[in-house]
Design a protein that fits this description.
Blueprint: H1 10-14, E1 18-22, H2 28-37, E2 44-48, E3 69-75, H3 82-101, E4 106-109, E5 113-116, E6 119-131, E7 134-144, H4 170-186, H5 199-208, E8 215-218, E9 222-227, E10 233-236, E11 241-244, E12 250-251
Parallel strand pairs: 1-2
Antiparallel strand pairs: 2-3, 3-7, 4-5, 5-6, 6-7, 8-9, 8-12, 9-10, 10-11
Helix pairs in contact: 3-4
């Protein structure tokens, strides 16, 4: 059961290829990679009630107790556009949360954070697996603080959705989010087979862009100036503007 709904009916509820729910996993994303290695179809979904070894970018630990959404999705696009995919997933997640809130409140922090009230609500991690230069599959990991407790040591920078919506359930978030991610997996309009971000997507990100105009120390010293359509961060160095595809953000 997931919030009172039988786990066996989740795949049909969301229109995905298959869905597995586990009480405990080291990492839902690792479980997705295992499915990929076994030939599972795109839009295969893994949900963990709790993760014991959840991770974020650059090997950072993601605290994943019961009550949050710890989600993995298998994608099989023809090419790996990780920066673009991360932005698209962020937009889908921000839209899902805003629908539940009934108003636009979420912000997006490049490269992979969703913020609510200036605190981190969710994170996104995209990983590819290759055979030589051929992409085999992409694993998408999404972690959302929903009803889980936030450790005191990170409470100033992290938030759970239940602080804004006390009656929220994980299923409410998943009902909004998983069908949108299934669209990315299927290559449907708005899906994963497109290349660069289109004009509408760029505008949607710009409207939520938390970094734009802020002075950075890293990944390069300068002022954030938004995104390119390929998902790269634009940084004005003063003498010119550069585009960065990856890196850890630190404000000056």
């Amino acid at each position: 059961m997931l919030d009172g709904f039988p786990a066996a009916g989740l795949a049909a509820r969301w229109g995905v290829a298959q869905c597995s729910v586990y009480r405990t996993l080291p990492s839902a994303l690792d479980a997705v990679h295992e499915l990929g290695s076994r030939g599972a179809p795109a839009a295969s979904v893994v949900i963990a009630e709790e993760q014991t070894a959840g991770r974020g970018r650059d090997g950072r630990t993601w605290y994943s107790p019961p009550g949050g959404v710890w989600l993995g999705v298998l994608l099989r696009p023809p090419r790996a556009e990780l920066g673009v995919l991360s932005v698209r997933v962020g937009l889908a997640l921000a839209d899902a949360v805003d629908v539940l809130l009934g108003r636009p409140e979420t912000r997006l922090k490049w490269p992979n954070d969703v913020l609510l009230g200036e605190r981190k609500l969710a994170g996104i991690l995209c990983e590819g697996r290759w055979h030589g230069e051929t992409l085999q599959w992409l694993g998408l990991g999404v972690g959302v603080n929903v009803c889980n407790a936030i450790p005191r040591e990170v409470a100033r920078g992290a938030v759970a959705l239940a602080e804004w919506l006390p009656a929220i359930r994980r299923l409410d978030v998943l009902d909004q989010l998983v069908p949108a991610l299934a669209g990315l997996a299927s290559g449907s309009p708005g899906g994963g087979e497109r290349g660069a971000l289109n004009e509408r997507e760029c505008a949607a990100f710009a409207a939520r862009d938390w970094l734009r105009g802020r002075q950075l120390r890293a990944p390069a010293p300068g002022r954030a100036q938004g995104l390119r359509p390929d998902g790269a961060l634009l940084v004005d160095l003063g003498a010119g503007t550069i585009a960065l595809r990856e890196g850890h953000v630190e404000l000056a």
